[in-house]
Amino acid sequence: MKIKCGIVALVGKPNAGKSSLVNAIIEEKVSIVSPKPQTTRNNILGIYNSSSSQIVFVDTPGINKSGSGLDNYMQKSVKGATSDINVLCLVHDITRDIDKTEKGIIEDFSSKNIPVILVLTKADLLDTEKIAKKLLEFSTLQNKCEIIPLSSLKHKNLDEFIKLIEKFLPETSAENKLFNEEYYTDKSLKFIASEIIREKALYLLNDEIPHGIAVLIENYEEEENIVNIDAVIICEKQSHKGIILGKNGEMLKKIGHNARVTIQKIVQKKVMLNIFVKVKTNWKNNLDILSILGYNINEV
Hints:
- Strand 2 and strand 3 form a beta hairpin.
- The two termini are 36 Å apart.
- The chain has two domains: 2-176, P-loop containing nucleotide triphosphate hydrolases (Rossmann fold, 3-Layer(aba) Sandwich); 189-299, 2-Layer Sandwich (GMP Synthetase, Chain A, domain 3), CATH 3.30.300.
- Strands 1, 2, 3, 4, 5, 6 and 7 form a seven-stranded mixed β-sheet that branches.
- Helix 6 (189-204) runs antiparallel to helix 8.
- The protein is globular and about 60 Å long.
- It has helices spanning 18-26, 69-81, 100-111, 128-137, 158-168, 189-204, 238-245, 250-267, 287-292; strands at 2-12, 44-49, 53-59, 87-93, 116-121, 146-149, 171-173, 214-222, 226-235, 270-279.
- The protein is 34% helix and 24% strand.
């Protein structure tokens, strides 16, 4: 049996809705989501399987100016994700104007004969008339890319989005899929657990702290009916540690509780989660610490 199979990169500005889109399509928690920018730090694969196709979505960090070593890692990740793809999806918040950087991405990839889809997310925030007006604004790009509005939250136009992607993918036999059908991501449960802890912290902590934290899983031990996890939240300042802990440790308990509930839903087992907090000054520019955390800059 023949199917369509290929790799699709999702790129776009921070908070454009890339991770929410992947999670909605895969119907599993592949990427963490928060209202704060630069939530995604790694390229994460979300694997969509159907009777007609296997689509490997690469969820990339938000396009951002490089600064720290971590920022450089994330932007190199974006470039790496787009080096060998079948389709590029530029994910754009439909409520915002498109800028020169985004137009440049469309121009660049269309000139390389790589199919480009401009994905207008958060369409549930606009009525039909306003969506039509937005599509008219983007019509000058129609000779360079396909354009589709959708809503991850309301699952609007997701099926049409999949069909549009399939149109550009090469055909292969079902036996030659890139991944076994049982996989929905290339990331380990250990990695997903660390990201979920970071997600819960992103929601609960003050704005100045989240981009200065990382999560290291020191122990991940899976038994028949229970998963034991020891995790460390790494922050940059002693004052940040106090905020993460909260009064009498209440904030850390809240982060741990919220993370444990989500992880249990994924692993389908009881989770014993211990979280500690450590200060590592300027860790975002420390190559040794970045490597321990899995941000191997030289390998991107």
